[in-house]
Amino acid sequence: LLNSYEEKLELLDQYGADVVVEEPFSREFSNVTPDQFVNQFLVQRLETKVLYLGYDFAFGKERAGNVETIRRLAEARGIEIHVVPPHKVNGQPVSSSLIRKLLDQGDIERVNLDLGRPFFLRGRVWRGEGRGRTMGVPTANLQTEARKYPRVGVYATRTLWRGNWYNSISNVGYNPTFKDGGSDLPLKIETHLFDF
Q: In 10 A of CB 58, how many CB atoms?
């Protein structure tokens, strides 16, 4: 995941969504045919008048429906359809898989450009070993939900804490200096805030 569910809702709110309707993905829902989807969800439940879709939208049992399917079914029921083309930056389509690839490469500048906003990690600060404090560089250890992280490394960051922004430096890594073991070390995100 690039963002948690709560973060996605906050981002949708920031970009102007008035209401978000979530349909839990169940076995029953996964077996809905394209025709049932249009009738039950778009027409009966949501009383849809206008629908915007991504260019690669797929729906229905075994993803049997595509943009042309929904255009045919929806327009026959009086629903106006608009297909949104791919979002491109410098001529290249932006996708979540591209963002994940760029994060693996540690190319945060490009990630931010493609997202149209700064990439961020959010979580709870938890008590670590306290080694940074004894060395004069205390760090906040960030505990996050399972998600995609940038490549292991050290990053110039900005940290929001109780409504205030701080310049900071963050390490995404495994702390091999202090642990015996190999690749089974847990990934840690530690941030040192300047002038804090």
A: 15
